[in-house]
Design goal:
The chain is mainly α and 137 residues long. It has one domain. Helix content is 68%, strand content 0%.
Length: 137
């Protein structure tokens, strides 16, 4: 059961990252293509909030809670990364690549992505629909 939960947490983690990365790629494409749906305020605000959470974690020196939770579940299952299910190993390999002396790379990457997201918010701000005004007859 712990193994399944660890795989579930790493899959949720990948979905979180995917929402931020693929969402930004779609926003940039939408700016170029003139797609109006990219200006949806719920999408844009949630997108910004998700990357800001990551940047704040890095700034505060916190390890990602999803990573911590996954590691704890994996430990409770008595498994190493190599002993995980195929899906667990695959998602883990996608999420966590080993780079030499990469301690500075990820914080810079997170802050850069946040900067691009803020920039696209300025270039193509969300559009809030005005509520129809009541007419007095």
């Amino acid at each position: 059961m712990y193994s399944f939960l660890a795989d579930l947490v790493v899959t949720i983690h990948l979905a979180y990252v995917g929402y931020v990365v693929l969402g930004e790629l779609l926003i940039v494409a939408g700016i170029v293509m003139g797609w109006q749906w990219i200006r949806n305020p719920w999408f844009r605000i949630s997108h910004l909030a998700m990357i800001l959470i990551v940047v704040l974690e890095v700034a505060a020196g916190f390890k990602c809670p999803l990573t911590t939770w996954e590691e704890q579940l994996q430990e409770a299952a008595g498994q190493t990364v190599e002993e995980r299910s195929f899906v667990g190993r695959l998602v883990n390999d996608i999420m966590f690549c080993d780079l030499p002396d990469s301690s500075w790379i990820w914080p810079v990457a997170y802050c850069s992505v946040a900067g691009v997201i803020v920039l696209t918010l300025v270039v193509a701000p969300p559009r809030f629909r005005a509520r129809p005004r009541a007419t007095i007859a």
